[in-house]
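BUG: 3D viewer hangs when loading the predicted structure for this chain

Environment: internal workstation, default settings.
Expected: structure renders.
Actual: progress bar stalls at 90%.

Input used:
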Amino acid sequence: MYYIKDAKIRRMLEYDGAPCAEVGVLPGAVGDSALLVYIVEDNREEGYEIVRILTNDADTATDWYDNNMHDAFVDVTSSAFTGSPVMSPEEERDKFQRELLIFRDLKKQLEERFREYS
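Structure tokens produced before the viewer hung:
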């Protein structure tokens, strides 16, 4: 399971023609990678859906400028959640999404940003 130390909306963009929020997520566990999580509005009960997840394995000591022009960003959307003896990969993903949305009122911030972007 991925523990969240910090999460912030970095910018709004389009993903497959739909408004999308890019959220930077810093790990709470040593050894975990920073993430870029892409979230779109959805009609499900939570109102949002994670559509893409990228890891950033660049060392911030040497790559301190947010450089996405190299191979440090890797798409892990389909492999980010592997499951555990107590949770399936889908349950892990759902738990991560719920925890991300409640982290520091991120869901409220998303509502405001999506409203402004329209």
